[in-house]
Fold this protein.
Amino acid sequence: MNKPAFGAAPKGKRLERIKQSEFYKNGQFRNISHTPSITEGYSTLKVTYDFILGKKDPLLKPLKNIPAVHTDLKSIKKDQDVLIWLGHSSYYLQTDGISFLVDPVLSLYGSPFKYFNKAFKGSDLFHPEDIPEIDYLVITHDHFDHLDYPTVHSIRNRTGKAILPLGAGAHLERWGYSEDDLIEEEWGTEILLKNNLKITFTTARHFSGRKIKQNNTLWASYVLETPSKKIFLGGDSGYDSHFKAIGEQFGPFDYAVLENGQYDEAWRYIHALPEDVIQIAVDLKAENVIPVHSSKFALALHPWNEPLQKVTELGKEKGHNILTPMIGEIVDMKNTGHQFRNWWED
């Protein structure tokens, strides 16, 4: 655990700052609501057994390559407003002339070790060298499937600033980023970015940690406000009242990128189920929803394509615009007539 991939624990003035946070109590960050790691009625032992030794669904992993398209990110013009999903929770976002890279995990695995949580074939089209110079790297929390050491270390010289929750900057500083490279804040903080864009650190219901000790760094979602649109950048989160509060304060949103995948009824306090995603869209007053957190790693026990099947069916029933691009397919955010096929059914 001393290897670079595990990052670093907050210390010194960063730790002193953490201790002053209203969200930090008894040596760790806390969710706004009481958040058990396991849902009532479920056993930690049984959940662990099922995950490691239980019978697996035959479609836990895809039987053939994930459909994907390799878009040249470096050729995208600055006047284009686009979102390009790179697999799992990673996406490239450009709006109002400013570029963002969110939770980039472009390794072939979603863990600190090359032999665990391997990427599905076809989902691994994008690599760190494909990333152009970006204005802002955005991290929602420090779990390995959201904060990838090889990727983040590789793009350091092409990154303007990194936006990340309080405490997580310790990892990036170990990986070569300077204190001046970091915008590291807690829930409720508003930061003015280039070109009159504004980002606000907003609440999520989750947890953090890359080593045995958990919750010594914060987790977050973000509200991105630009002269032309409002976008919700959702991190991992179980459903709770904070989504309605965010919707009332900042909504309606033109786009909401929401985590939908790697869920289980036993984890519903920390990961949203598909029906929760639809309610979150309602709470946020989101015109368009882009579901992510699926189709690259098997981090839960559901079939690999179930998240997209369920959220699109539920969204259609409720009349929501659920946008489901393939990995690498361009979402033109200036276009209102989005059409994407059900590629996971191929």
Observations:
- The two ends are 41 Å apart (CA to CA).
- The mean pLDDT is 96.
- The longest strand covers residues 159-165.
